[in-house]
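Notebook entry, structure prediction.
Reason for the run: the old model in the group folder had no record of what sequence produced it. Starting over properly, with the input documented here first.
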Amino acid sequence: MRLPLIKPADLTDVQKPLYEDMKKGIGSNFNAFLTVAPEGAPEAGALMGPWNPWLHEPRIGGAVWELTKAMTMEANLPDPVRQIVILVTGAHFNAAYEIYAHVAVAEKEKMSPERIATLLSGSRPGDLSKEEGIGYDIAFALVNGGVLPEPIYRLAVATFGQHGANELIYLVGLYCLVSMTLNGFNVPVPERE
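New structure, fully documented this time:
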């Protein structure tokens, strides 16, 4: 880890409101995996994952957090589609904490171990619904570079509407940013319980 965890007592006046907002949002939306250093740890109460690097740069981190909240709290896409998109993106970049976190979410939502393993291997599971398959195809095409092929884009608009297609594209972009944050700062994965 390249940036130390920031204990709550060490937060600056600029970091404190962002920390409180992140902790509140994390507590209500990201509860399938470890996000805060546990009691008894040297940095108890410190935010982990991508939130710690964002907290180190509150102006930039605050903007990224606002985008994260919008993409999470105002999501319209079915959650299985979202999880597939996130896992495809995280696996593409081998972003360890992202994979750890969203495998935990997928398991909580009863995604099969076979499907999770296939997604993490970079392959397309054969049992995807139409909607899940479109999510996979959008994420796979975008993380592999270039313009999103027109047939995939049209199929996303026809299936999810323009707003849903937009959300798919933005979701891939957000999790590319999350992956870069995690990999750039070498954010570690907590021990699984």
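Summary: The chain is about 65% helix and 0% strand.
The old model has been moved to the deprecated folder.
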